[in-house]
Protein: DUF2759 domain-containing protein
Amino acid sequence: MGLVIIFALVSLLALYGIVRSLREKNILALLFGLGTAAVFGWFTIMTVLHHGFPTGTH
Structure:
């Protein structure tokens, strides 16, 4: 279940990168950020839907 947490962290960092690239008007970084946020965000959502939310205990 640590995979969901890693995917979510990567998605959040990609969103931060998108905001930062918009502020600096960096088009290539914006494209890579959008792609990363889309892919890892989708993986996060689908993993949570399929496996459930991580509980923290086994």
Observations:
- The chain is about 85% helix and 0% strand.
